[in-house]
Amino acid sequence: MKHYLIAGLALLAFSSCEKDPDLDALDTDYVVYTEYLDGVDFSQFQTYYLPDSILQPGQGSDATYWKDDYAQMLIGEVKSLMDERGFTRLAGEQGKEDADLGVQMTYIAQTNQVTTGGFYYGWWDYGYWGPWWDSWYYPYAVTYTYDTGTLLLEMMDLTGGGDDGTARRLPIVWYANAQGYSFGNSRADVNLLLGAIDQAFAQSVYITRND
Amino acid sequence: MDMRLTNNRLLAPLAVMAVAMAFAVDADAQSQYDRMHLNIGWQMNSPFSGDFADKLGGWGMAFEVDYDLAARWSVGGFFNFHTNHKYVGRQTLPMGGTGALTTDQQRSYYQLPFGAAANYVLWDNAHFRPYVGVKAGAMYAKATTYYGTSGVYDKSWGFYVSPELGAAIYPAAGKRFGFRVAGYYSYATNQTATLTTPIDGQSNAGFRVGIIF
Q1: Which of A23, A89, B43, B153 could make an S-S bridge to B144, C-beta 3.0–4.6 Å?
Q2: Domain holding B174: CATH number?
């Protein structure tokens, strides 16, 4: 009986309780979250102002702006979608003053450091070492990093502005947050961001002037 | 992530287990040896009362110690664990009244019930002993939804009950070693919520294959 008990306890000790899922099954497209100000009627707006650069916070004490061809592709995608929805883009300082909506874009590149192991999507597959392994066990801390990107789109209602000296809070009437892994390949990353912009507008059908 | 089982309620099944174990230490050593049985089994399980992770999966094991009270009756303690996974393709989920989230998901539901077990042998045969049994106790559950670069999880405790129908198969008559197969249903009162798929009570069905000695 003692031998059986020892064998049973050994089997128990070597069996891993909770099985991690196959995170490789997840696609690489960005997770896209959008939200709008309850009650806002987007058809009341006619024009919008969209800067020709993308803000990149966290690049130093001063604001940094992303302006290269890839940035222009992303800005152009937003412009194209806004135009499709019936809005008119205004340009120049006067255009910024006259526009009903302001649209600002922000991109946050982040390097994440993790001090545990085997849990991160894209890590080595333990199954590579044999079908009998069902998870990782790290007896000590292991550090690795991975890169993520977050694209923020914010739409402001500028119709309440004016230079009458009154302090006002700038209302955000729509917000989109797209987040995913950054693969270090500019073209591939931009394609993912373009898809995220398309998705943000696709799930925000209320942003329209079209009947 | 709330604790839904009070300490007193948690102690109840443990007390039953303690009583069951008391039988094991009451008799003389040889009698204990003859009457105690250890079951270790692999199980296939499918949650089916909701669509959180309703896929049949084999990532689980079952452990049970039984003590023969009488020729046909045995009582004991058990615990088992199981993880079921389900991939959900990319879809747009409404969040609140004005939000929307588009993502795919990899869901994982982990269950760890433990408590007391009782079995009744329907037909006593040297090679084949079919039985009906019931397990009751507490269950720990953890529901996780992985999406994008992270995930959300929720943990809970609940009550657990599981009737089962099975058979012990002894290739060599009179020997302790044998095989055990069983089909079971289980229900636990655990409540968890991740993203937009809450679980309010969980039913499972499955089967176990294992050894008994």
Answers
A1: B153
A2: 2.40.160.20
Task: Count CB-CB contacts under 10 A for residue A153.
Answer: 23
Residue B2 lies in a domain: no
Supply the ipTM of this predicted assembly.
Answer: 0.80
Q: How many CB atoms lie within 10 A of CB A85?
A: 18
How many domains does one find in chain B? 1
Q: How far is CA A23 from the centre of its chain?
A: 19
The pTM assigned to this predicted structure is 0.78
Chain B residues touching chain A at CB-CB below 8 Å: 33, 36, 38, 40, 59, 61, 63, 81, 83, 85, 87, 90, 92, 95-108, 110, 112, 142, 146-149, 213
Range of the domain at B15: 7-212
Residue A5 has pLDDT above 70, yes or no: no
B99, A35: Cβ pair inside 8 Å?
A: yes
Which residue reads 């009341």 in tokens?
A44
* CA-based torsion, A188, A191, A196, A197: positive or negative: positive
B90-113 pLDDT per residue, tens: 999 999 889 999 999 999 999 999
Measured between alpha carbons, how far is B88 from A141 in angstroms, rounded to an integer?
32
Domains contained in chain A, CATH given: 26-202 (3.30.160.670)
What is the Cα–Cα distance from B25 to B31, expressed in whole angstroms?
10
Average pLDDT of adjacent 10-residue blocks, chain B of 213 residues: 39 50 56 86 90 88 94 94 94 93 94 96 91 97 91 93 96 90 97 88 95 93
Specify whether the CB–CB gap between A207 and A40 falls below 8 A. no
Report if residue B185 sits inside a domain: yes
Higher pLDDT among residues B46 and A112, named by residue: B46
Please judge whether B104 and A121 are an interchain contact, meaning their C-beta atoms are less than 8 angstroms apart: no
Locate A95 and state its tokens. Answer: 């255009």
